[in-house]
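User: For a reading group we're discussing how well predicted structures match intuition. Take Aspartate aminotransferase family protein. Before you show the prediction, I'll give you the sequence so everyone sees exactly what went in.
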Amino acid sequence: MTPLPHTGNNAADVLAELRSLRSADTPTHGGRTLAYVYDSGLAGLDELTAAAHSLAAHANALDPTVFPSLRRMENDLVAAAAQLLGDPQAVGTATSGGTESCLLAVLAARERRPDAAAPTVVAPATAHAAFSKAAHLFGVRLVRVPVDESTFRADPERMAAACDADTVLVVASAPSYAHGVVDPVPEIAAAAEQRGIPVHVDACIGGWVLPYLRRVGAPVPSFGFENPGVSSISVDLHKYAYSPKGTSVLLHAEPGMRRGQYFAAADWPGYTMLNTTLQSTRSGGPIAAAWAALQHIGDDGYLQLAADTYAAVHDIRAGVQQVPRLRVLGEPDATLLAVAAEDGADFDLFTVADEMRDRGWYVQPQFAHASSPVNLHLTVTASNRGSEAEFARDLADAVVAARAAGPVQLEPEVAEFIAELDPQALTDDEFAGLLAAAGMAGGAGLPERMAPVNVMLAHAAPQLRERLLVEFLGELYRP
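Assistant: Thanks. Here is the predicted 3D structure of Aspartate aminotransferase family protein, as structure tokens, for the group to look at:
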């Protein structure tokens, strides 16, 4: 089909083309994609949430007085999250996802402190990149504090020492995305409260599942509003609440803190713009879909899903530890595992990722950073229950294949070329040369094997890697 046909195609043909396009995507169901997607494995849930989304897709949450159904559903989502996270009186907002929730938490904190000459946010080095984005967008300086080199948890004393008169917010993770560990929130919050600084807990990935994991016996550290000093928490519903993509909740302990994220504009001839989020128009579809998921699954259902996930995490971790020369980084508290190679291993984890993809699994490569070596990220969901042994067998086979292939070697001249690149002055010709070295010249698209590309990126400093990937993104999004 053409981008815009002269004469419209019939509905059946349009859907057939869409199914054909989707067939090339990484699968979103069945537990074989261990990043980006969250699958409950519950029969009928997709159909229910799709129907709910359709019923409200054309309603606009921009004006809660015109579409009161959306206001009611959003308030229900906020109330459920607030109850789960330790403060039924907390107020909140539904957003489009975890990044928007984190952005708004930073914005609200900055607006609360107009006296701060150079507002800063103090966060552990493992805090999500959403806070880097917030700093970039809102003119805030992000102070990243080193974490413990072996546990990857934030250090409360270092965090407290990094705060000053211009610190508008302190951040903790529950858990961190890279390693799945919960920061010591009680200690971080207590130190910040003594200084009058609010604390945001980024529980986007863990906020919904951690309370249920605790109820099924997992030793989950305290991280919610029960800790004095915690002023806001973000929790994504499109993760372990298993709603479709597009819904997160940002909670505030005090209504006054939420006011800073709101935006109003009346000085123009149109309607008075009033926004609760970064968006103006907001489709009611994601809100209705999330509301339907919560109503259908219920508390008992989420408890069972957490039990299944907890068992899957245990068995997958045990399987990883049976594979020679692999190890799990840190001591994960939740549903995320970071799998690294032991020092001196004679294989390449980027090749292991390719081999796993050949076997029908997607595991997410993560580059080395500080004391965290190259590793493979695994997001485990309820749908992984029952396939743990197959995953472990395939992982063991992938390591054998990677060992046989040997580590990917970067040509010395390519490594030297990368070392000399200036991310601020990267030219089109230099970028084209790297694409050619990676086998992607002339719009060839992604290669079948990503290990050579990842090894090349691993040789680039973070700032250069950012610039290279931004340029590559521009190449991908060309009609």
